[in-house]
Amino acid sequence: MRIALLGGTGDIGEGLALRWAFHTDHDVVIGSRDPDKARAKAEEYETELASRGVDRKITGFENAMAADRARVVVLAVPAYHVSDTVDAIADSLDDETVLVTPATGMQRDDDGFHYNRPGAGSVTELVAGAAPDDVSVVGAFHNLAAGRLADLDADLGIDTLLVADDPDAKDLVRLLAEGIEGLRPLDAGGLANAPEIEALTPLLINVAMNNDGLHDLGVRFD
Amino acid sequence: MRIALLGGTGDIGEGLALRWAFHTDHDVVIGSRDPDKARAKAEEYETELASRGVDRKITGFENAMAADRARVVVLAVPAYHVSDTVDAIADSLDDETVLVTPATGMQRDDDGFHYNRPGAGSVTELVAGAAPDDVSVVGAFHNLAAGRLADLDADLGIDTLLVADDPDAKDLVRLLAEGIEGLRPLDAGGLANAPEIEALTPLLINVAMNNDGLHDLGVRFD
Question: Is the ipTM of this complex over 0.85?
Fold first, then answer.
């Protein structure tokens, strides 16, 4: 299956690209507003995988081109860019596309990080509102530490929470998540349940900041 | 140390009472608005402990009486009762008392449970605002499943998050939490970081509702 990682040049996009290319046979495509940057990163990921004996072709394109013909499009961009990015790729999406959103809104003050909840209810619901009506939206991969995800030597052993109103789209993303070794997808219900998932990300950062020896934290429900 | 569990007749209060009485030597006092109910529950807990070979005296009183001379007072009451309860016990608190709040605000709709954030920022901050100025407030034990906590046969193996602006009060509650086998206290910073902790409780319920085989969930940061 073709997966396009928009914003696949940094942060959580890098980790998802490397993990899917390393653990699965999915066709991984990197998207960026700057196609040269997308291509350079794609080559960098190929080199990283080759150093581990995995020969994979990863391509890089401008976002709309990357999204074109992808079955799954992951919006691995900051929360304040999700609406613009969805608008820019709208013509590349159709009723077969599943749009996945891992972004959360945060702000920082002297105490730590806080969830900055958008008027739409959550960043996930903001994406659902911006997406064409026939495109299914799934919230997933919100609470993964980027550095740990991108380090293929790091064991995960953590959970990721899925929200969607379309059960078929949710099932598809669950399969994608299960493809990543050590990542357990859990169903958290409909899109309306996204705020509490997004709020978990600043909490993970606050816990890492306040406890020696804990960093790049994930969460396990048990 | 004397610990008063206000609202210790139900929900999370029962579990904390049983665990502290079972695992530690702290003097556990049950508080309720109804002193007869407090005494009846205290006897019930004594019977439960005796059935496990633990001979402990647990007393029950009306809330203000229970809080009197307690070093730590746990407000194990629903969020909509915390202000009234603090007002009712204010004369029993002094600058030596640490007030612990585990309550969170939730509402339910067709999708599941949602964090109902109070105007004060969080229920924890609501308690801090209602408490006399010289009383230190610690947010803790927000995300524990009541049934699992009260079942002394159940292994915990989960974390609880602490927030406080007074580091000494936070340290005291950390020691209390460490006294419960299988419960790991983690520092989540100041009181202003409470909303994201309180929002985790409805998320735990949503995850339990949507995944077969998962119930009475706790969380582990890893």
Answer: yes
